Each structure stands twice: as structure tokens, then as C-alpha cells.
Amino acid sequence: MRNDEYEGTASGFNSSFSIHHFFSILSITVNYFLAETTSKVEETMREVERIADQLKRAHEGGAWHGPSIGELLADVSAEQAASRPVEGAHSIWELVEHIEAWERAILRRLGGDPAQIYNTEEDWPPTRDASEDAWQQTRKKLADTDAALREASLRLDDAQLDEPIIAEMSSRYVSLHGAVQHTLYHAGQIALVKKALGLKLPTIIPQNQPA
User: Fold this and answer.
1) CATH numeric code, 47-203
2) What pTM was estimated for this model as a whole?
3) 33-57 residue pLDDT tens
4) Where are the domains of the chain?
5) Residue 107: Cβ within 10 Å count
6) Do the Cβ atoms of 179 and 106 come closer than 8 Å?
């Protein structure tokens, strides 16, 4: 019997099936398994990608909770955005400015600026120009800031998320998720102001809602 052959039939191999053939097939099988495993790993989203996706959904649509900021604002005019139908409540315009201010604050903190805007004029900027052009610029500024924040988050490694965004502040993870939560909290307020104005809310897409 040659050393490179199996001769016994009990093993399921005959003398024509060499060890070389066996290991060739084994190598092909292992390589296939490794390729499939690598492919599945590559298909898995990084955590920063998941966060960026949640930010995008909060602004552009497909959010699990209901209408996004963009969907809520689509039919709102400058006059409606600046009005105050609910006594003691902020206008839609003020809410939009406030959302943008805090997303920009998180963006600045990712860049190393502490951005201490709480209880400053930057926190709740006043509406000085209530024209339609100014309203469209306000909406664009919010969209641009959100896009920049998503881009900045995607430049992070997942390992950086648990580090403080700024010394003695919350982590990058908490800050970025906080931006999503803050935006959607005020999206609910915008929806309530719209109802008070007699405006219809966007149609809820069933597949985005809880079963």
C-alpha cells in the first residue's frame, strides 16, 4: 500500500482516491466557507453606520415612529412656520432652528469644540426674518447640518463611540443617539403645532410601524 492512498473500503475511499485528492477537496471547501463567512461579516453594518441611518430616517423618512422632520415640514409655509397657535409653545420655525442648533453642536463637539450653547441665544435663535426665502434657507440649513453630522459620524471607528465626545462630557455614542432622540422629540412637537394650525399630518407608511 502506498502512503498517499486509502485502500480500505470501510473508510468510503478506494485505492484510486488519493490523499492529495482528498485534501484538494477539503481546501476548496474550507476556502468556500471562509469566503462566505467574510462576505457575511462585510454585509454587517458598523454601529456608526446604524447611527447615521437613524439620523437620516429622522430627517428624510422611513422612521419607525412615524413622519420624519422633512415629511412634517414639506407643506409648511413661512407664515405657518412663524405662527404661534398654541399659547406658550414654540413656533415650528423656532423648533427647526433649535433642532439644527443642537445637531450642529454635536457636530462641533466631534471636531473638538465644546459648543456650550445651552441657555444661550444659539439654543433658541429668534426668528428675525419671516419671509418665505428665509424659511427655505432655514430648512436647507437644517438638512445641510444633518448631512454633515452623518458624514462626520461615518468617519468614526466603532471603537471611538464609547470615548467622551469632549472631556467630561458624554460619550460619542450617547451624544449621537441623543441627537436622534432630541430631533424626534421636537418632531412630535412640530406635529402638534401643525394640528393646531389645522394642517394635515403626513400619511403613515404601515410597513414602518410596529406590528
Assistant:
1) 1.20.120.450
2) 0.78
3) 444 434 443 468 999 999 999 999 9
4) 1-44, 47-203
5) 20
6) yes
Scanning the structure block, which residue is given the C-alpha cell 426668528?
127
What is the DSSP track for the chain? --TTB---TTTT--TTSBHHHHHHHHHHHHHHHHHHHHHHHHHSPPHHHHHHHHHHHHHHS--SSS--HHHHHTT--HHHHH---STTSPPHHHHHHHHHHHHHHHHHHHTT-----TTSTTTS------SHHHHHHHHHHHHHHHHHHHHHHHTS-GGGTTSBSSTTS-BHHHHHHHHHHHHHHHHHHHHHHHHHTTPPPPPPPGGGS--
- Cβ 114 vs Cβ 166: under 8 Å: yes
